[in-house]
Amino acid sequence: MRTGRRAVARGARAAAARGTRTADRAAELERLAEEIRACRRCPLGSSREHAVVYRGSSTPSIVFVGEAPGAAEDRAGVPFVGRAGRQLDAALARLGLGSAEFGVLNVLKCRPPGNRFDPAAARTCRPYLDRQLALLRPRLLVPLGAKALAALVPDAPPILQCAGAPRLGPLGPVFPLVHPAAALRSRRLKERWDSDVAALRRWLARPPLQML
Ligand code: URA
Fold it and tell me: Which residue from 22, 137, 164, 179 lies 20 to 30 Å from 152 (Cα-Cα)?
């Protein structure tokens, strides 16, 4: 009986500690978000309307990594809220991911003019991505498109060779997908997107020991 009570108390203390750690993490993420919103380290800081930081859980199992905000994201200050975002959201629903399980962010936090990915800005922005991932500690990263893949797995083969299959990157397991915006532009890439999302769903359903 006493042991049982002690075990319950220990469990409650552990849960409280976990809760505190989760609250600390959410607070750290918010401090980082404020820093990013105030950033002027590169010219994109002056041309943007909003910095676009993150959407999703502060304790995600999976983080989807896009390239850079587009016009809709720049207006809203939230990643993947335009057409590509709707495509991504449909995939998230197919994957059966609950809101506590995933997060979405970009390599670049500010919209590049003309939506042209800016490698110099990406180098300046890189510490923010690293700090976000260090705080979020996801079990799986899903780079969306070639630029995100190159940022997360610099020596990976081209995106069309490795999308739809798991691999081990320097930051842990990754499962690359083609960019959802590409899937909106071409029927061939839409079919590729659909089959790669289905492959990810099958892979996530496997027992953990067989994951990689
Ligand atoms: N494309 C991206 O890569 N990121 C967004 O947030 C929107 C479109």
Answer: 22
